[in-house]
Design brief:
Chain B: GO terms for molecular function: ATP binding. Chain B: Keywords: ATP-binding, Nucleotide-binding, Transport. Chain B: InterPro entries: AAA+_ATPase, ABC_transporter-like_ATP-bd, ABC_transporter-like_CS, ABC_transpr_CbiO/EcfA_su, ECF_ABC_transporter_ATP-bd, P-loop_NTPase. Chain B: This is Cobalt ABC transporter ATP-binding protein. The complex is a heterodimer of chains A (414) and B (543). Chain A has 414 residues and is mainly α. Chain A has 3 domains: 204 residues, no CATH class; 68 residues; 56 residues, no CATH class. Chain A is built from 17 helices and 2 strands. Chain B is an alpha/beta fold and 543 residues long. Chain B contains 22 helices and 20 strands. In chain B, helix 4 runs parallel beside helix 6. The chains are: A mainly alpha (414), B alpha/beta (543). At the A-B interface, helix 2, helix 8, helix 9, helix 16 and helix 17 of A face strand 6, helix 3, helix 4, helix 5 and helix 6 of B.
C-alpha cells in the first residue's frame, strides 16, 4: 500500500539502494503515515479539547481535524467512517442539551420558555422533570456535550487516517502472538458469518423451520464442526509455514522474563490503586506505578528478543511522522499553557451569560493542530482508476516465458 | 531430496496402519504424483513429508523420513518451513493474513528474512505466478484459481526445495486448474523445485508427472514411472482406459501422445457411429423456469435464465467458478433469493412455485443437495439422520435407510456423519433429500473430492434416478463425468446461458469442455471409453 512510486521506479535490486535516501527524498511522495503518528496527533488534539469548554476553540479543533482528514485520508473503507463520528458527535451534543431540558434544575435567570412541570412523588425529591427552561442551563449542556463530542471526533479522525491493520503490525515483538490472534480472529469472523448463513439456507432444504431450539442445534452443530475443521487447517498451515520458530531460549531466561512481566504488572496495579486512593502512603502511588511499568517494559523487551521474525515493509518513524506526532503534542501543551495563563477564557462562565472569547495562545494551538494537513505526505490512492480486476485467464500462467523467470532464477537456486 | 525409510504410520484409533513399511526415494526436481482412493493414506503420506504427521496430527511414525538431510523426527514442521512448502486442499482455510501481498510475505516474516530480501521475493513471486495485478486485493474476493495460486506463491517466497500440494485443483474449473498446473510445471522445469502432488483427477496431472505413487489402500505404496504404474491399477483416467481398449503399449499419458497413435483406432471406428443422443422428451416439463434473475449487492448472479427440465433427463450445468450455477440452482429450488422470474412445478394440486410453498412442501417438489453436503447433516449417527429424514418427510420408518442402502450398501448405522468419506457423506445427504421423493433433483458440485470409483458409483446412482422418471441437474466442472452422465449440457457464463444442447453437441463444439476421448478421436464424435468399447466389439466380432 505504501510507496507505490518506489516499486514502480525500477527493478527490485534498486530498492535497497533507494532506501538510504528515501527518508529525505521520498518524504513528499504519497504514502501512508505510521499509524502511531496519527494516533499521537489525535490524542494530542483530544487532550487539548479536554482542557476547555469554550465552544470557539472546540469548533476550531473539530474543523482542524476535519480538514486534515479530508486532505490526508486514503480510500480505504475505514477512512469513510469519519462522517459517522461527526454524526455521533452531533448526537452527543443534542442528547446533552435534551437532558438538561428534561431534568432541568431550572438555574439561570434568562428563562426561554416554560414547560409544564411534572410533579414527582416525595421519594424522588431533587429530581425535576421539565419546568422553566433557562438559557444558561441549555448552554451549559451544549458546552459540556461539545467538549465530549470534540474528543470523540478527534479519535474518529485517527481512525479514519490510520490503517488499523498496520497499527496491529506495529505492536512490539513481545505482543506478537496477541496481534496474530487478533488478525486471525478478524479474518475468521466473516467466515463464521458466512458459514452460519450457508447452514441456515441448507436447513431450509431439509424443510426445517428457521427458529426454535431444534433449529439452533441444527445450525450450531454444522457451524461449529466447520469452524473446528477450519481452525485445525489454519493451525496446520501456520505450523508448516514456520509460525512459532523461536530462538533457542534457555529455561532460566524464559522464567526470568515471565517473572519480570508478572511483577511489573502487579506493580502497575498497586501503583494505580495508590494513585487513586489518597489514604495509602505516597510511595505506593506514582513511584510504584513507574517502577512497575519499567519492570514490565523490561520483561517485554526481553520477551521480544526471543521472537525471531522480521517485518515486511515495516512503517518507520521518519520526518513526517515526527512532525505530525509533534503537532499533536504541541497542541496539547499550548492548550494546557493557555489554561494556566487564562483559565476564565477557556472555561467561559454560563452564569452570567458571556460571549466566549479567544486568546492568541488558543489560536496558536489550533494552527499547530491543523498543520499536518500540509506537513503529512498525501495518502496513496489504492486504485487510481478502476483497474481490470479479474486475472487474464490462461494467458498469464503460460505464455510469458521470459521476464519473470529471469528475475526469479538466480535467487531461487541460491 | 525426500527419503522414506521403512516408514509405518499408525493412528491410535485404527488397528490397521495407514502406511506400512514404505520405502521411497524422490530425487531433486521431480514432479511426483500421488494417487489412490479416498482414505488410502494420500494425505498422511504428504503430511509426513514436512512432519505434520506425527507432530501435528498425532499417531505414531516408525522409521525415518528425511527431507533435504533433515530428519522429521528432530525437526517439527515449523523448522522445515524453509525446506518444504505445503499447500492444503482449501487455500482459504490456510490464509493467515487478509491481502495478497501480506500473505506472500507471511512465511518470510516467520523465517526472519531481512526486509529488502522479502520485498524482492514478493515482487518476483507475483510475476512468477502471474498474480501481480492482485497484490492489493483482499484474499476473500479472489476466485478459486487465484486463491490457489496465491497459496502456492505464499509458500514459494520462502524458497522451499520441496513443494507439497494436496489436491490443488479439486475445486477449480478446467481453465483455472490449467492455470494452477501450468504454474506448478513451470516451477519444476525452471526452478528445479521438487513437487509432490496428490490429485483425484489423474487426467489433469499425469502427463506432467515423472513418477507416480499409487496407494492401493492397504498401507503399501506402488512406486514407478506413470505409464508402468497406471497399467497395473484398476481405475484410471479415460485416456489410459482408451489406451487399454486399443491395446497401446506403452500407455499414452497425454492427449498428444494418444492422438499420434490413434490413426488406426480411428480407422477401426470409421464405420461405426456413436449411439444417438437420447430423444428430446416432448412431454410436460417437470420444472419450467422463465426469466430467473438473482441479484446480490453489487453483482447480478443470474440474468434472466429460461430453463425447462424434463422427466428422465440428466442435465449437466457447466461454467466457470462464479458464473451463477449455484445461484441458479438455489433460486430454482426456492430457498435462495430470486428477484424476478417464475418457476413452475406441476404437482397433484396444480402448478405451483416452490418459493411460494413452505420449506417442508418445497422439498417434495424440488430436492437440492448443496455444495457441502455436510451442511445438511447435524445429528450424531447415520441412523439418527435417517430417522429424522423419515420424520421430516412424513414417510414410513426405514424409507431413508432403504434409499441409502440402494446408494451405498452397508453404511454402519452408528457411524458419525463427519467420519464418513466424502462419497459416503454425499450418499447420505442425497438419501435424506430423496426421502421426500422430489420429482426434480438438483446436485451442486457433487463430485468434489470423489475418487474414480466413487464417481462411477455416483454416475450409476444418477442414471438410476433418471430412469425412475426424475429430472436431474448436476452442476459440475468435471467434463469426464459429464461425458458419461449427461443427456443435455447447459453452459452458463456471467449469469446467462451461452450454450444448451445434447452432450455431444455442446462438448464436441468447444475444446474447453471436450473430454479426453473426444480430443483423441476428433473429428469423430466419441465421448466416452464405453461408447468406443461397445462400438469396437460390435464391429469386430462378426469378422
Amino acid at each position: 500500500m505504501t510507496d507505490r512510486a518506489v516499486v514502480d521506479s525500477g527493478p527490485p535490486a534498486r530498492v535497497s539502494a533507494w532506501s538510504g535516501v528515501r527518508s529525505v527524498r521520498a518524504g513528499r511522495l504519497p504514502r501512508s503515515l505510521h499509524p502511531g503518528a496519527w494516533w499521537c496527533w489525535a490524542l494530542g488534539l483530544a487532550t487539548a479539547a479536554s482542557h476547555t469548554t469554550n465552544p470557539l476553540p472546540l469548533a476550531m479543533i473539530v474543523a482542524a481535524a476535519a480538514l486534515v482528514v479530508v486532505r490526508r485520508r486514503g480510500d480505504a473503507p475505514w477512512a469513510l467512517a469519519f462522517r459517522m463520528y461527526l454524526v455521533l458527535g452531533a448526537v452527543i451534543v443534542a442528547m446533552r442539551v435534551l437532558f438538561r431540558l428534561v431534568f432541568g434544575g431550572g438555574q439561570g435567570d434568562h428563562v426561554l420558555l416554560h414547560l409544564p412541570e411534572i410533579p414527582l412523588p416525595a421519594w424522588a425529591a431533587g429530581i425535576r422533570l421539565f419546568g422553566p427552561v433557562a438559557a444558561e442551563q441549555l448552554l451549559g449542556g451544549f458546552y459540556d456535550g461539545l467538549r465530549l463530542a470534540t474528543m470523540l471526533i478527534c479519535l474518529g479522525a485517527a481512525n479514519a487516517l490510520a490503517n488499523p491493520k498496520r497499527l496491529l503490525k506495529a505492536v512490539p515483538g513481545a505482543l506478537y502472538a496477541v496481534s496474530t490472534a487478533v488478525v486471525v480472529a478478524l479474518s475468521v469472523a466473516p467466515q463464521l458469518v458466512e458459514s452460519v448463513l450457508r447452514v441456515r439456507r441448507a436447513r431450509r432444504l431439509r424443510g426445517a423451520a428457521g427458529h426454535g431450539l431444534r433449529a439452533l442445534r441444527g445450525i450450531a452443530v454444522p457451524v461449529l464442526a466447520d469452524a473446528l475443521d477450519r481452525s485445525l487447517a489454519l493451525a496446520a498451515a501456520m505450523d508448516s509455514r514456520g509460525y512459532g520458530r523461536t530462538a533457542a531460549v534457555p529455561a532460566g531466561q524464559r522464567a526470568l522474563t515471565g517473572a519480570l512481566v508478572l511483577a511489573g504488572l502487579v506493580g502497575v496495579c498497586v501503583g494505580t490503586y495508590g494513585l487513586l486512593d489518597a489514604t495509602v502512603p505516597g510511595y505506593l502511588g506514582l513511584p510504584m506505578l513507574v517502577a512497575g511499568l519499567a519492570t514490565a517494559v523490561a520483561g517485554m523487551l526481553l520477551a521480544g528478543r526471543q521472537v525471531r521474525r522480521s517485518r515486511y515493509r515495516p512503517d518507520r518513524w521518519r520526518l513526517a511522522e515526527l512532525a505530525v506526532a509533534g503537532c499533536g503534542l504541541a497542541t496539547a501543551a499550548v492548550m494546557t499553557m493557555a489554561g494556566t495563563v487564562d483559565p476564565e477564557r477557556l472555561y467561559p462562565p454560563v452564569s452570567p451569560l458571556t460571549w466566549p472569547e479567544l486568546t492568541p495562545l488558543v489560536v496558536l494551538a489550533v494552527l499547530v493542530a491543523v498543520a499536518p494537513a500540509w506537513l503529512a505526505p498525501p495518502a496513496p490512492t489504492a486504485n487510481p482508476a478502476p483497474r481490470p480486476l479479474p486475472v487474464p485467464p490462461a494467458a498469464s500462467g503460460r505464455t510469458d516465458h521470459t521476464s519473470p523467470r529471469d528475475t526469479a532464477q538466480p535467487e531461487a537456486h541460491r | 531430496m525426500i527419503d522414506f525409510d521403512r516408514v509405518t504410520v499408525r493412528y491410535a484409533e485404527s488397528r490397521e496402519p495407514m502406511l506400512r513399511d514404505v520405502r521411497l526415494h524422490i530425487p531433486e526436481g521431480e514432479l511426483c504424483l500421488v494417487a489412490g482412493r479416498t482414505g488410502a493414506g494420500k494425505s498422511t503420506l504428504l503430511r509426513a513429508i514436512n512432519g505434520l504427521v506425527p507432530h501435528f496430527t498425532g499417531g505414531t511414525l516408525y522409521g525415518t523420513v528425511t527431507v533435504h538431510g533433515r530428519d522429521t523426527r528432530a525437526h517439527p514442521p515449523r523448522d522445515l518451513a524453509d525446506v518444504v512448502g505445503v499447500v492444503g486442499q482449501d487455500p482459504l482455510a490456510g490464509f493467515v493474513t487478509d491481502t495478497v501481498e501480506e500473505e506472500l510475505a507471511y512465511g518470510m516474516e516467520q523465517l526472519a528474512l531481512p526486509a529488502p530480501v522479502m520485498r524482492k521475493r514478493v515482487e518476483e513471486t507475483l510475476d512468477l505466478l502471474g498474480i501481480a495485478e492482485l497484490r492489493d486485493r483482499p484474499l476473500r474476493t479472489l476466485s478459486g484459481g487465484q486463491q490457489q495460486r496465491v497459496a502456492i506463491g505464499a509458500v514459494l517466497t520462502s524458497h522451499p526445495q520441496v513443494l507439497v500440494l494436496d489436491e490443488p485443483t479439486s475445486a477449480l474449473d478446467p481453465t483455472a486448474a490449467e492455470d494452477v498446473l501450468a504454474a506448478v510445471t513451470r516451477l519444476v522445469h525452471d526452478l528445479g523445485v521438487t513437487v509432490v502432488v496428490a490429485e483425484h483427477r489423474l487426467e489433469r496431472v499425469v502427463q506432467y508427472a515423472d513418477r507416480l505413487l499409487y496407494l492401493p489402500g492397504d498401507g503399501t505404496v506402488v512406486d514407478g514411472p506413470p505409464d508402468a504404474v497406471l497399467a497395473g491399477i484398476e481405475l484410471a483416467p479415460p485416456l489410459i482406459e482408451l489406451g487399454r481398449v486399443a491395446g497401446w503399449t506403452p500407455l499414452p499419458l497425454s492427449v498428444r501422445d494418444a492422438r499420434r497413435r490413434a490413426g488406426d483406432l480411428r480407422q477401426r471406428l470409421a464405420d461405426a457411429s456413436p449411439p444417438p443422443a437420447a430423444p428430446v422428451p416432448d412431454g410436460v416439463p417437470a420444472l419450467t423456469a422463465r426469466g430467473v434473475v438473482v441479484r446480490y449487492p453489487g453483482t447480478v448472479a443470474v440474468r434472466g435464465v429460461d430453463l425447462d427440465l424434463h422427466p428422465g433427463q440428466v442435465v449437466a450445468l457447466m461454467g466457470r467458478n462464479g458464473s451463477g450455477k449455484s445461484s441458479l440452482l438455489w433460486a430454482v429450488q426456492g430457498s435462495g433469493p430470486r428477484q424476478s422470474g417464475t418457476v413452475t412445478v406441476p404437482g397433484p394440486d396444480g402448478d405451483t412455485d416452490p418459493k411460494a410453498l413452505p420449506a417442508a412442501q418445497a422439498r417434495r417438489r424440488v430436492g437440492l443437495v448443496p455444495q457441502t453436503p455436510g451442511d445438511l447433516l447435524y445429528l450424531e449417527t447415520v441412523a439418527a439422520e435417517c430417522a429424522q429424514a423419515d420424520r421430516e418427510s412424513e414417510v414410513p420408518d426405514g424409507t431413508c435407510r432403504e434409499l441409502l442402502d440402494h446408494l451405498t450398501p452397508g453404511l454402519p448405522a452408528d457411524r458419525h456423519p463427519r467420519d464418513l468419506s466424502e462419497g459416503q457423506r454425499l450418499a447420505l445427504a442425497l438419501a435424506v433429500q430423496l426421502t421426500a421423493a422430489p420429482p426434480v433433483v438438483l446436485l451442486d458440485e457433487p463430485t468434489r473430492g470423489l475418487d474414480y470409483r466413487a464417481k462411477r458409483q455416483f454416475a450409476t446412482v444418477v442414471r438410476r434416478l433418471a430412469a425412475q422418471g426424475r429430472a436431474v441437474v448436476v452442476a459440475t466442472h468435471d467434463v469426464e463425468l459429464v461425458a458419461i452422465l449427461a443427456d443435455r449440457v447447459v453452459v452458463i457464463a456471467q449469469g446467462e446461458i451461452v450454450a444448451d444442447g445434447t452432450a455431444a453437441e455442446v462438448m464436441l463444439a468447444s475444446p474447453a469442455f471436450a473430454p479426453q476421448v473426444a480430443k483423441v478421436l476428433a473429428p469423430q464424435s466419441w465421448l466416452t471409453v464405453d461408447q468406443v468399447t461397445t462400438a469396437l466389439t460390435r464391429t469386430e466380432v462378426p469378422r
